[in-house]
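How it folds
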Amino acid sequence: MSSNFLNSDIYLYGVLPFLIFMARIFDVTIGTLRIIFVSKGQRKIAPIMGFFEVLIWIVAISQIMTNLNNFACYIGYAAGFATGNYVGMLIEERLAFGQVLIRVFTTNSGTELVQLLNSRGFGATTFNAKGAQGDVSIVYSVINRICLDEVQRLLSSYDPKMFYVIEDIRKVNEGIFQHAPYAKIPLLSRWRKGK
């Protein structure tokens, strides 16, 4: 009798909160990625992710509702939510999905920087402008986000003190893009814009 009671306690205060914790990690991770895909205009994959996100959430919340007196389930639920956000951001960072706009302001030659970027397969455009401290060149380049580290290294080697801004963009049409290694993720390569 006491053995059954002990097993019941292990399930209620150990196994069940852990399962809720894991379910929340999965559904919040999927939710984080879904929001990113929606912001990138990916209409095919976002609804599928939304379906699984809500399905997992319903299972987790139903366990909370049937065990309202179990405080350990609340802890598992909240910890899973927090961990899911973190894991979702890590995965999104690894996927490096979509394109970004890099806007560079430099007192060096913008034409030389464009040539450097072009030589590495990145499209770029430059024009001259007046800044607070005199003449500057502004260089625009839209790149696949997965190539961002490489471009930042190029910019630093060209002018370690240059000022640049990086912005996410929703959609691009045409342009010169270095081949991004999306072959590692065949499902995503199908929906990638600006290919």
Observations:
- The helical segments are 2-39, 45-66, 71-95, 110-119, 148-158, 186-189.
- Residues 63 and 142 are 47 Å apart (CA to CA).
- Confidence is low (pLDDT under 50) at residues 182-195.
